[in-house]
Amino acid sequence: MQIILMHSRFTQAKSVTLSSRHVIFGLFSFLLIITLCAAMMAALTLRLASADLPVLRDLVPVATAEVSNKDKYMKENLAAMAAKLGEMQAQLIRLDALGERVQGLAGVKPEEFNFKELPGRGGPEVTSQPAKELNMEEFQAALDAMSRDVEHRSDYMNVVETKLMGFKVQSKLLPTIQPVNVAYNASGFGWRLDPFSGRSAFHEGIDFSSPTGTPIVAAAGGVVVAAEYHPQFGNMVEIDHGGEIMTRYAHSSKVYVKLGDIVKRGQHIADIGSTGRSTGAHLHFEVHVKGVPQNPHKFLSAGANQANLAALGQK
């Protein structure tokens, strides 16, 4: 290779002849210089980084700091959302259990409504508007709103359960089951001819005629407020059911409860007899509300209707 050099100071052109050996040596020298410069720059950068100089911190690009802040923000939000998701899962488990209890109190069959099964959903795909993707803030807001909705529904279900439980307890305290397993066929509630005097008198209960020793059960749960002998009613039991409701069982041959006992609905409390002012073995049954005698038949009829509805619901 021949290189011709020309300059105004030169009186004539000069030429330099380069052989292939010269060209290869020059390229090798150039590459060596570049490699040495790169190694020096890397060593200088590592030394400055280990020294943690303020000047170096100022030279760090702003983009690196922004990326670090975004990563930190993402991690903090993901941790918060994971905690919120765990709370929602616990709330849903509690809501499922509460729903099953309310379902049982309301008499809804599991095959009719199952809280653990996802409801069916569907609909046409809307293509008139483009789909919108949620950003982190919108997703966090939606998660918080859903958590509040779950909590509100849980509170509502608790109120419903309390009401249903109250109704169920109250229904068990109403004298709605028949105290004797026979149809009352003696005297009904209301005015009648007194069997002893023959004059018109008001009969404050209903009579169940049955042989002596026939079991008498409590028409509802409550507290025994009287278990004694009465000149008119003979061996008598009175039960307070709360809500100013009281039942009386008269003319018994034997009494199996005492004053202050807590009796359950359907519990055996006495046996039929003919004590006191009685013409024969029977149970005289009374229901009082706020001290006023009521027709026991309406309570017993309500209980019979409820039992029939429950039987139909099980079929």
From TrEMBL:
Positions of transmembrane segments: 23-46
Gene3D superfamilies tied to this protein: Glucose Permease (Domain IIA) (2.70.70.10)
InterPro entries in UniProt: Cell_wall_metabolism_enzyme (IPR050570), Dup_hybrid_motif (IPR011055), M23ase_b-sheet_dom (IPR016047)
Keywords linked to the UniProt accession: Membrane, Transmembrane, Transmembrane helix
One Pfam family recorded for the sequence: Peptidase_M23
Domain of life: Bacteria
Signal sequence, start to end: none
Boundaries of every M23ase beta-sheet core domain copy: 202-296
Name by which UniProt lists this protein: M23 family metallopeptidase
Source species: Undibacterium hunanense
